[in-house]
Design a protein that fits this description.
This protein is an alpha+beta fold. It folds into two domains: 60 residues; 80 residues, OB fold (Dihydrolipoamide Acetyltransferase, E2P) (Beta Barrel). Helix content is 42%, strand content 24%. The strands form two sheets. The protein has a four-stranded antiparallel β-sheet with strand order 1-2-3-4, with helices on one face. The chain has a four-stranded mixed β-sheet with strand order 7-6-5-8. A hairpin with a 7-residue loop joins strand 5 and strand 6. The mean pLDDT is 91.
C-alpha cells in the first residue's frame, strides 16, 4: 500500500505560500526606493527565492512510504530511496515521549539504517498496523530530551 504525505498536516503551508508570493512583490517594491534596474534585479531575486522555497516544499510533500508483503520502501524528501526488508529489521516501534513523540521508527542493525516516520502520512494508523504486523514491534518510552537514535545506541551498544 502507498502512504503519502498529508498536506493538511503541514500547519505552516499557508505561511510558506504567503512568503513565496511576498518575495517577488517585495522585489517589485524596490522600484519606489531605488529605480528600475534595482527593481528588476530584486524582483528576479524574489522569484528565485520563491522558486527555491516552493521546490523544497514540493520535495517534502512528495515523501511517501510503500509497503509490500516482504519489505517497505520509503522515498524521502532528499530523493533517497530506503528499502527495509522485514526479516532484516531488528528494532521497530512507536516512540512515546521525547522530541520524537508519536513517531514510528524502523531500524536495520546489520545495514545500520534507520527510518523515522512522523504522523504526517495519510492513514497513519494503517501504516502503523501494517508495520507492527511484520516487524519486532515495541513501544519505546523515552526521556523528555532523549531521541530514538540515542536510545537505540544504548540498546545496541550498551557499554559505549
Amino acid at each position: 500500500m502507498v502512504y503519502k504525505f498529508n498536506k493538511k498536516s503541514n500547519k505552516k503551508r499557508p505561511l510558506i505560500i504567503a512568503v513565496c508570493l511576498a518575495c517577488p512583490v517585495a522585489g517589485a517594491c524596490v522600484y519606489f526606493l531605488a529605480g528600475l534596474l534595482p527593481c528588476i534585479v530584486c524582483t528576479a531575486g524574489g522569484f528565485y527565492i520563491s522558486y527555491s522555497i516552493w521546490k523544497m516544499l514540493n520535495r517534502l510533500e512528495s515523501t511517501r512510504v510503500e509497503t509490500f508483503t516482504e519489505s517497505c520502501t520509503a522515498y524521502t524528501s532528499g530523493g533517497e530511496r530506503l528499502v527495509f526488508e522485514y526479516k532484516n529489521i531488528t528494532h521497530a516501534g512507536l516512540v512515546k515521549g521525547g522530541p520524537n513523540d508519536g513517531q514510528i521508527f524502523i531500524y536495520d542493525e546489520n545495514a545500520d539504517k534507520i527510518l523515522q516516520l512522523p504522523p504526517v502520512f495519510v492513514d497513519f494508523e494503517s501504516l502503523k498496523q501494517e508495520i507492527s504486523e511484520n516487524t519486532p514491534w515495541k513501544t519505546y518510552e523515552l526521556e523528555p530530551d532523549e531521541t530514538i537514535t540515542a536510545h537505540l545506541k544504548k540498546l545496541v551498544a550498551p557499554n559505549s
